[in-house]
Amino acid sequence: MRCRYCLSDDSRVVDSRPTEDGTIRRRRECTNCGRRFTTYEKIEEIPITVVKRDGARQPFDSEKILAGVRKACEKRPVSSADLNKLVDDVSREIFNTLEQEITTIQIGELVMRRIKELDEVAYVRFASVYRSFKDINTFMEELKTLLGESNEGLVNK
Prior knowledge:
Strand content: 15-25%
Number of helices: 5
Distance between the termini: 57 Å
Number of strands: 6
Helix content: 40-55%
Strand order of the largest sheet: 1-2-3
Radius of gyration: 24 Å
Structural class: alpha+beta
């Protein structure tokens, strides 16, 4: 980091702490002139575009995931902390792909994997909206799959 007084490129960090807005405040000391100055660092996030089913594109917004999951978990014994953790986990996984675009289908699959672990009723609710079941038979197939997995879990215990 360049010293603002003598323009030397050599400085050392004296103190470092996060700020409320997510930036990092660093107190630095120039090794050339000995003067101190403050810098602020912000983590640069790659903007992610969500490609919707109709081909429309829009910026990624984790609040939309939270709204969908809240709706699915309405009147279910799932805490807000669990919902926020689910959304944080999905968001982290999306950003860790380092891709600049992601489809709503990929996001939906990530959410469904995690919501299934939280609450099976919420999973069925979310799946019914996300997968847009055409008729009762496709809905029943999903339920049978879910019941089959639940029964395997009981047998293995």
